[in-house]
Amino acid sequence: MTRTTPPRRLQPVALAALALLAGLAQAQSNLPTVQVVGATPVPGTNVPKDQIPANVQTADDRDLRRRQSLNLPDFMGSSLPSVNVNEIQGNPYQMDVNYRGFSASPLLGTPQGLSVFMDGVRVNEPFGDVVNWDLIPRAALASLTLMPGSNPVFGLNTLGGALSLQTKSGDTHPGTEIELQAGSFKRLSLELSHGRKLGESGHLFVAASGFDEDGWRDFSPSEVRQLFVKGGQHRDGWSWDLSLTHAENSLIGNGLLPESLLAVDRTQVYTRPDRTDNRLSMLTFNGSLDLSASHTLSATAYLRRTRSSTLNGDLNDDYDPPAVEETGVENRTRSRQSAAGLALQSEQRLGSHQLTVGLSYDRARTRFKQSEAEGMLDATRGVVPEESPEIDALISGRSQTTSLYVHDLIALQPTLQLTLAGRWNRTHVTTIDRGRAELGLPTNLDADARYTKFNPAAGLTWQVSPSLTAYGGFSQGNRAPSPIELGCSDPDNACVLPNALQSDPPLEQVVSRTLEAGLRGTLPLGWAWNASAFRTVNRDDLLFISNGRAAGYFTNFGRTRREGLELGLEQRQGALTWAANYSWLRATFQSSACVVAEPNSTAETSPACPGEGEIEVRPGDQLPGLPRHSLKLSLDWQATPAWGLGAQLRAWSSQYVRGNENNRHQPDGEEYFGSGKVGGFAVVDVSARWKIAESVELFGRVSNLFDRTYASAGALGENAFDTNGTLLAPDDWRDEQFVGPGAPRAAWVGVRFRF
Question: H-type helices in 430-490, by residue range?
Fold first, then answer.
């Protein structure tokens, strides 16, 4: 029987970091920060926010502290307009982050459409473009910028937006900080950081963190260990910094649960274990040189190594006694990824032009292995393997991308700016079936694909008055299929995710085009407001089509469209800050197609889609997993210099579940169960902070204050258990709706020391 290693409290690395920080501590005050928006993911080009033709959103480390957010998904889901979070895995570090209908997710099978950068380095993993949020050190983050649209300057996978993260430095964040937090679900976390100047021009910053939690669902402990070290120098007209990011994490994400089991006990799991182990080591170098007062050269180089393994205990779809007695199957995967890249950039002011020209090269290699072993489900629905694992796949994948880009900000008038940009991408993706080659069998997983695309962008910003700005623009981006998608695209040979691979029909690259227009401005008494409208159309969108069990395949879909409105209003006056943000999103299919969705009640009822388990998707059908309406309210009151209070409300309307892509599933109470939608919900969080001394602050947070029961994600599937959790005979399995239950009310308290 597979056993989950219990969490290790306060690992030696954290204790060592504490000793280091104590030795380095000096009494220094925080320096004020100036908020700018980078026009490219390579540091060096800074464009004032009011000159960007899009509804850009920014935040800094002080915002993360006020919200007392655990990680980026937690902060973005509660604070940023047009962002919603799906708790599809039931783990706070394995959330789907959706922005304007595009996702950045750690889960293979989720269509990826957002690019994520940290200090200029793209952190979407090469094998699937997924984003492992647990590998991003929150304690080291200085600021974040969420850029909407298909901005080509940010390169591949920027279909709906780009998230650019900047880390702290010793000169901008001096001093020592220690934070300890504990509370619900046996959560215990420790964060340590220290920043200082070295001599006249050097700087050093160190951050280490440890997180342990038992989780609110059964059998769901997790632990996260992160380390970040950054040093560098600023002198005369040149500067450089070198950083190390390291993480070793073990996450349990128990996934969706049938509604019939959910009604009995929300904390139980369907089958187990569902464990992911991630390990990261990344070196990043950034440097810049001022050739003159108006001309700067900059460079970014990185080396990135990740090792990931998964252990999934699943129901055996082949269970059919007496021919097949094994009720469960244990699926294991292991991937080793190495990536390296270099970007060079020139920024020059030439009269009314602010011209940026750049060149980048990225390459990645992946070695992947999957095995399975049949076994029996025990009383807890955990899989106990009864045979040696058999290898299903043993492949290697490579990807190389070369890009040339240009960005020109042209001042047509002092209050009118024209932005022109373009990027040429050339991507080469290969997969090699090493498993079959070593056995002397014909290979059928080999793939070799090349993708080339030039993406343009143009926009205008007009400062109508000092308190009003109008903007509008067009942008285009593209995304090339990753090795996992190329190797799992045959509907006749579905893959068992995370990653089983089969022979692959060719896939086309995704091309997205975005139109956006809006207004933003200020009013007396500290008021600020914004209003924007957008439309993004994807051609040859990449979707994962599930067969209702554990398997599925990737395929291109003709066209999809996301369009919407964003309205925001906030006020900062004295000790009180409040904000209200509303978003409307209509995300739809714009082509007709037949997709496999066996648990859907309309399967095999359309003359246009007579295939086994197929449903017909028509133009106008809504994409699953995306609520149409969202509302976020926040309030922060600094009652006295010593203490303050905060509150946030986030509300979302209903959404269709996966498997109901045609929006027409209906339960009949006999063979099909579940409405095909998850209902809307609203959740309130509150927080408090109390500065009891100059260097000591107490804080606390209550999430889901009113203990609302809700689900943030769902899918149609086949349930093999009765309400008591007993395995049924295969003929009695029924199609049902599975949902991702939201966490119940929880509370945490902590203390923060600053020196």
Answer: 434-438, 483-486
Six-digit token string for 659: 């498997």
Q: Which domains does the chain have, with CATH numbers?
A: 12-27+38-289+308-406+424-463+478-754 (2.40.170.20)
With H, G, I as helix, E, B as strand and everything else as coil, classify residue 648.
strand
Is 543 in contact with 658 (CB distance < 8 Å)?
A: no
Helix (H, G, I), strand (E, B) or coil at 184: helix
CA-based nearest residue to 198, from 167, 248, 235, 236: 235
Nearest residue to 228 (alpha-carbon basis) of 185, 282, 290, 181: 282
**Residue from 61, 69, 228 nearest 144 by CA:** 61
Which candidate, 354, 345, 480, 323, places its Cα nearest to that of 417? 354
CA–CA separation, 683 and 741 (whole Å): 13
Q: Give the model's confidence band at 558: pLDDT under 50 very low, under 70 low, under 90 confident, else very high.
A: confident
Task: Report the largest interatomic distance among the alpha carbons of the chain, rounded to a whole angstrom.
Answer: 81
H-state helical runs in 476-614: 483-486
Q: Alpha-carbon torsion 385, 389, 393, 395, what sign?
A: positive
Contact 35, 58 (CB under 8 A): yes
Give the residue from 77, 103, 91, 84 showing the smallest Cα distance to 653. 84
Task: Read off the pLDDT of each residue in 251-279 and give the average, rounded to a whole number.
Answer: 93
pLDDT at 445 over 70: no
| Angstrom distance (rounded) from CA 499 to CA 503 | 13
| Nearest partner of 511 among 544, 487, 543, 536, judged by Cα | 536
The predicted-structure confidence for 194-216, as pLDDT tens digits, reads as follows 999 999 999 999 999 999 999 99
Helices (H), 307-438: 434-438
Q: Tell me the residue type at 278.
A: N
Q: Give pLDDT tens digits for 378-391.
A: 999 999 999 888 88
Alpha-carbon span 639 to 53, nearest angstrom: 37
CA pair distance 222, 193, nearest whole angstrom: 22
pLDDT tier, 109 (very low <50, low <70, confident <90, very high otherwise): low
Report whether 317 contacts 16 (CB < 8 A): no
pTM: 0.90
The radius of gyration computed from the CA coordinates of the chain, to the nearest angstrom, equals 26
For residue 322, is the peptide bond before it cis, meaning its omega torsion is within 30 degrees of 0? Answer: yes
The more confident residue out of 366 and 555 is 366
Token pair 């850029």 in the structure block, residue: 147
Token output for 261? 């089991």
Kind plus residue range of the DSSP H or E element containing 14: helix 12-24
Tell me which amino acid residue 302 is. Answer: Y
The reply to whether omega before 730 is within 30° of 0 (cis) is no
